[in-house]
Write a structure and sequence with these properties.
The complex is a heterodimer of chains A (about 270) and B (about 280).
Chain A lengths: L9 H4 L6 H28 L11 H13 L2 H33 L1 H15 L7 H7 L3 H26 L3 H9 L4 H35 L8 H10 L3 H29 L8
Chain B lengths: L6 H5 L17 E9 L6 E10 L4 E5 L6 H9 L6 E6 L2 E2 L7 E4 L11 H5 L1 H5 L6 H11 L15 H13 L5 E5 L7 H18 L2 E6 L2 H7 L2 E6 L4 E7 L4 H6 L2 H18 L7
Parallel strand pairs in B: 3-8, 3-9, 6-7, 7-8
Antiparallel strand pairs in B: 1-2, 1-4, 4-5, 9-10
Helix pairs in contact in B: 5-6, 8-10
The chains are: A mainly alpha (about 270), B alpha/beta (about 280).
The complex binds adenosine-5'-triphosphate and magnesium ion.
The site of magnesium ion has 3 residues of chain B, from helix 2.
Chain lengths: ~270, ~280
């Protein structure tokens, strides 16, 4: 039909929804482009006499090596300590960031006082705490977890505070009216209301924590993904180095996807809500 | 829609509401020289307001927008502290909110992350009476005709249904008094009419004291035993009058209803200094 005078039907005006199969296809296409570029890079390196030593960075040797590392359990062995450090750092970051975030979201005075110091501290690269962390902590592990906390706490804190500020005051009035004590207000109203904000903060925190982890693990420790990268470089085992990079990317991607899934689960906003 | 000849509504009345298991003695309220100022620069919102409400009485606070009705109701609920004077309920000064007197607001403000039943259970949960939830919540939900909606998300309901959930939420802790702040103003005429009848009936069956804030003369005549007409700037009680109608007369659009409506409209217009007009 090409009757231009007819007003378009709502279905045609509405935003086109990407069918699942199509978005999956596009995701595969993106992955294929990435693999293509990787392969091209490997090919260029192999062709260049000065860079020939790095030819093991190419997809084929890397993936072969990765497969060996998966089968030997090496991948698990190097990932578990890293995941433990990030997990521990995140737990501390949540334990600090959520209560402080709620406090500065609820008390404008505290927000005004803390804003400048927090913004100042936030802007310091977590890695620049490294020398202090090494002095302050007895163990390398402690220092690494500290660096992760310094990276992860800010997104959680600020996201929580922003969520608290967006809480409908009427929800708090209803709670007060029905005899809620502060404990109820926190656990029945505030935390469920801002669950998605907290999780969004955790998702961002996870991103920066994972990025900070690898350089942090160049420090002292003899386990983890960062150590594996350093070790592979020192032993000139470039296939192993590249395979470790792939592992880091895949785990990071997986963690982010999990966080996204959690956010979808806790998101109470209905798209068609009033 | 003309309220005074609303015979058609009688035919379409809701089925009678089941009385609740345990009637209570409605609260007695004494308001003593209440005055309130929000900001010094704005002057007094309320000035020396004095009145009493008997056990189980249904009182309407009628007044123009901005005359301080909501402010007064918040003070009855213990949600706002008066600048001067006090509210005494059952002999005790009100200092804080209590599940014994529950307020219903202009907006239902349900928690959107909860189901209808979870919303209705909030008062019991906060009052450490969770053991009553299983029996009480279905009871109050059927009282407001939403028995089958218990497991629906609160966001999936219409405005009228949400306000019914808010009513169920207020009734669940078995309060002695319900304070309603124009809770039906956003609803269509038919839904509003049936809720007005239901709420009055529920209050009477249970023996609840009911205070309704409204600027709708018809609503006041339909629901209240007694109407306090407020004047504004500063808010003060200008008229205190009884509505002497049987329940049938209230719902049926009788001559007696028409007469009371006209009389109250006259009082209201004079106090509010507005030209007489049908609502
Ligand atoms: N929190 C507040 N801070 C300052 N002023 C307020 C506050 N709440 C109400 N007021 C003022 O007090 C006066 C009375 O307000 P109130 O809400 O009690 O009126 P109302 O009779 O309920 O009006 P309506 O019928 O429009 O709801 C108004 O002039 C209003 O601007
Ligand atoms: Mg009001």
């Amino acid at each position: 039909m090409t009757d231009v005078t007819q007003s378009p039907s709502p279905a045609r005006v509405g935003l086109p929804r990407l069918p699942k199969s199509r978005s999956l296809l596009n995701a595969m296409l993106g992955l294929a482009i990435l693999m293509g570029l990787w392969w091209l890079g490997g090919w260029a390196v192999a062709d260049n006499p000065r860079l020939f030593a790095f030819s093991n960075f190419a997809p084929e040797p890397t993936l072969t090596r990765l497969w060996q590392m998966i089968q030997s359990g090496e991948v698990i062995e190097m990932s578990v300590p890293s995941l433990e450090r990030v997990g521990l750092g995140l737990i501390y970051a949540v334990a600090i960031g959520v209560p402080v975030g709620i406090l500065i979201g609820r008390a404008p005075r505290v927000n005004e006082i803390s804003n400048v110091p927090f913004q100042f501290l936030r802007m310091i690269s977590p890695l620049s705490w490294m020398p202090i962390a090494v002095l302050a902590f007895d163990t390398w592990d402690g220092a690494i977890v500290f660096l992760i906390i310094m990276a992860a706490v800010w997104p959680i804190l600020f996201s929580t505070a922003a969520g608290v500020r967006r809480i409908d005051p009427a929800w708090l009035k209803v709670a007060r009216n029905l005899g809620a004590n502060p404990f109820h207000t926190l656990f029945v109203v505030i935390l469920p209301a801002i669950a998605v904000d907290i999780l969004t903060g955790i998702r961002l925190a996870l991103g920066v924590a994972w990025v900070v982890l690898v350089p942090a693990e160049y420090l002292g420790v003899t386990s983890g993904l960062g150590y594996a990268i350093n070790d592979a470089r020192d032993t000139l085992d470039y296939a192993r180095l590249a395979a470790t990079v792939v592992v880091i990317g895949i785990i990071g991607f997986g963690l982010d996807a999990m966080a996204g899934q959690l956010i979808r689960k806790f998101n109470w906003v209905r798209s068609d809500g009033h | 829609m003309n309220v005074t000849n609303a015979k058609d509504f009688a035919a379409a009345q809701q089925p009678p509401v089941k009385p609740r298991s345990t009637p209570v003695l409605g609260a007695h309220v004494a308001v003593k020289s209440l005055s309130h100022t929000y900001r010094k620069s704005d002057g007094r919102v309320l000035e020396t307001v004095d009145f009493e409400i008997g056990h189980g009485e249904v009182v309407a606070l009628l007044g123009r927008s901005g005359c301080g009705k909501s402010t007064l109701l918040h003070m009855l609920a213990g949600l706002t502290k008066p600048s001067e004077g006090e509210v005494v309920i059952n002999g005790n000064p009100v200092r804080e909110p209590s599940p014994k007197w529950v307020m219903m607001f202009q907006a239902p403000s349900l928690y959107p992350w909860m189901t209808v039943a979870q919303n209705a259970a909030l008062g019991l949960r906060f009052g450490r009476r969770s053991n009553e939830i299983a029996t009480r919540v279905p009871e109050v939900l059927s009282l407001v005709d939403l028995g089958s909606f218990a497991d629906r998300n609160a966001q999936e309901l219409s405005g009228g249904q949400q306000q019914r959930v808010a009513l169920a939420r207020s009734l669940a802790p078995s309060p002695e008094m319900l304070l309603l702040d124009e809770p039906f103003s956003a609803l269509d005429a038919f839904t509003r009419r049936s809720l007005q009848q239901d709420v009055r009936k529920i209050a009477k069956d249970l023996g609840l004291t009911l205070v309704i804030v409204t600027h709708d003369v018809g609503e006041a005549v339909r629901m209240a035993d007694r109407v306090l007409v407020l004047k504004s700037n500063p808010g003060r009680i200008a008229e205190d009058t009884k509505i002497d109608l049987s329940d049938d007369e209230r719902n049926g659009g009788s001559d007696a209803f028409a007469a009371e409506h006209t009389r109250l409209m006259g009082l209201y217009s004079r106090v509010a200094e507005i030209a007489e007009m049908p609502d």
